[in-house]
Amino acid sequence: MEFPGYFKYTVTLLGAILTFYAIILAKSLLIPLSLALVFSLLLLPLCYWFERALVPRSIAAVLCILLLIGTVAGVGYMLGLQIDSISRELPEISEKVDQRLNDMQDYFEAQFGIDQSVQSEYFRRSVNDFLQNSGAIYRTTFSITAGLLNYLIIVPIGLFFMLYYRSFFKEFLYRLMPRQQHDRLRRVLEQIQQVMQDYILGLFTVIIIVAVLNIIGLSLVGIKYAIFFGFLAALLTIIPYIGIFIGSLLPILYALFTTESLFYPISIAIIFWLVQVLEGNLITPKVVGNKVQLNPFAAILALLVGGAVWGPAGMILFIPFMAMLKVIFDAVDSLKPYGFLLGVPAEVKNDGKTYRDWKVRLSAAVKKIYR
C-alpha cells in the first residue's frame, strides 16, 4: 500500500517531535551517558596503550577512569583552595559592598532626588521577595545536588562499560548493517572517533592557553585570586561564543566592589576582550582548526538547541554531537545534502587564499609605484 507524500512528512514530523520530547524527559539519564560516551572516545587511545602493555582490558578501563577522576579532583582542589581564601574575606567584601551601595544611594539622591529611605524600602521589599522565594531556591539547590550525585554514579559506570565492551558495541553496529556496508561503517566510526578526540583535546588545549593568558593579565593589573578568576573564565570557554563573557563578569564585579578605582574593572573588561579576540581569531582556529568542520551557524544552532533541550550540559555536548551527525551525513548518499549544509562553505574556506592573493597584488602595485 502506497501512502501519500503528506502522510509520510506528517509521520516524520511527529516522530521528530516525539524524539525531542523523549530526549528532554530522559535527560537525567542521557546527559551522564553522553558524557561517558565523550570521555570514552577521549580515553580510548590511553586504554589501547595500557592494553598493548599487556594490562587486562578491565584493569585498563579502571586505570583510565581513575586518571580522569584524579585530574578532575586536582582541578577541583585547586579551585577549592581559591574559593576557601575568598570565603575568608567575605566579611570584608560585604563591608565594601555595603559602602558601595551607600555611595550609590547618595549618588541617586543627589542626581535624581530619590530619598534614601525610599531606596532602602525598595531594597527591603526586594530582600523579602527573595526570602519568600527561598523555598524554590532550596528545591533548585537540592535538584542540582541530586543531579551531581547522579552524574558521579552514572558517568564512571557508563564509562567503564563503554571502554570494556567497546568491541561488543561495535559488533552490534556491524550486525545492523549489510555486509557490503561494513567498510563504510568502519570508516565512519574511525572518523567519528578522530573528530571527537581532536575536538576535545583541542578544547582542553584552548582552555589551558586561555587560562594562562587570563591569569597573566589579571596578575599584571593586580587583581587578587587571579588564578581562580582566570581559570574559571577559561573553563567556561567550553560554552562557545558566550562562555568567556560570562566568566568575565565575576572578576569585574569583584573589582568593582573591592577596589577604589574604576581602572580595575575597566582593565579587566579590556583584558578579557583581548583574550576573547585572540581565542576566537587565532588560538581556536590554530589549535582546533577545522577538525569539527561545522559552519558558525550550525554551531550556534547546536548551542541554542542544546541549551533548550538539556540546559548548560546540552550547550557543551551538542556541538560535538552535531559534528558526529555531519560525519554520518557525509557517509550516506541520501543524507549528503544535510552534511553539506552543516559544513563550511567553499567561499569561507577560500577567504584566506583570497586575502593572500589580495596582499600579493597590493604589494606588487606598491613596488611598481616606487620603482
List keywords for this structure.
371 residues; mainly alpha; 3 domains; 0% strand
In short:
This protein is mainly alpha-helical and 371 residues long.
Q: Major sheet, described briefly?
A: none
Proportion of beta-strand residues: under 5%
Computed structural class: mainly alpha
- SSE string, helices as H and strands as E: HHHHHHHHHHHHHHHH
In total, the number of domains comes to 3
Rounded radius of gyration (Å): 26 Å
Terminal Cα span: 80 Å
Shape: globular
Helix content: over 70%
Total count of helical runs of at least 4 residues: 16
Task: Describe the protein's architecture and organization.
The structure is a single chain. The protein is mainly alpha-helical and 371 residues long. It folds into three domains: 119 residues, no CATH class; 89 residues, no CATH class; 53 residues, no CATH class. Helices cover 85% and strands 0% of the residues. The chain has 16 helices and no strands. Helix 2 runs parallel beside helix 6. The longest helix has 40 residues. The chain is globular and about 80 Å long. It starts with a helix and ends with a helix. About 1% of the residues have low confidence.
